[in-house]
Specification:
The complex is a heterodimer.
Chain A (H helix, E strand, L loop, with lengths): L3 E4 L2 E4 L5 E7 L5 E8 L3 E10 L2 E4 L7 E2 L9 E3 L8 E8 L8 E2 L3 E5 L1
Parallel strand pairs in A: 2-11
Antiparallel strand pairs in A: 1-3, 3-8, 4-5, 4-9, 5-6, 7-8, 9-10, 9-11
Chain B lengths: L3 E4 L2 E5 L4 E7 L4 E9 L5 E8 L4 E4 L2 E6 L4 E6 L8 E9 L4 E3 L3 E6 L1
Parallel strand pairs in B: 2-11
Antiparallel strand pairs in B: 1-3, 3-8, 4-5, 4-9, 6-7, 7-8, 9-10, 9-11
Classes of the chains: A mainly beta, B mainly beta.
Chain lengths: ~110, ~110
Amino acid sequence: EAQVTQNPRYLITVTGKKLTVTCSQNMNHEYMSWYRQDPGLGLRQIYYSMNVEVTDKGDVPEGYKVSRKEKRNFPLILESPSPNQTSLYFCASTPRRDPHRQFFGPGTRLTVL
Amino acid sequence: KQEVTQIPAALSVPEGENLVLNCSFTDSAIYNLQWFRQDPGKGLTSLLLIQSSQREQTSGRLNASLDKSSGRSTLYIAASQPGDSATYLCAVKDGDDKIIFGKGTRLHILP
């Protein structure tokens, strides 16, 4: 089944404790991206990647890191999480030649205490 | 900086009515515009995508239009049903492949 998976789905952590949210897609898509969704602010793009070893900042990259060492994986890293990073995070992937076929993961709800 | 605005923020209409959701963007230099649907607690589902060279796209009861020069798009939903209740988001992709979302319109169809 074609899908985007995220792990964990729910996470409660404390300020400063490094964490990684994984994202994996099995559709050989080139384009992958991370978003955060906050009440009143909508969805905002954090980072995106056009292909392996190519990453670019979105609208709100501060406090986040990503890597794209393999085509299928696009982990989101919070080196030192802070309470203002409490949010709902979505990963998405899209084939470059067919942008209509955008697939979103189920979301990761992160709480930083 | 590209900004995407959706009006209204929330809308309630009786079942069976036709309705229009609006999306505006400040920079007309877009690659494409896409409409999504999001159900509570769920991810996004792509509904329609309009390339910058296109004027409209249709899928079933949905029709999306794009007027790039005025920075506007509309999503028309015909013969609304309770199952259409959801939040509808529009997003533009700029020339740098960055994607900017609007804050969405929360739609409630009254049975």
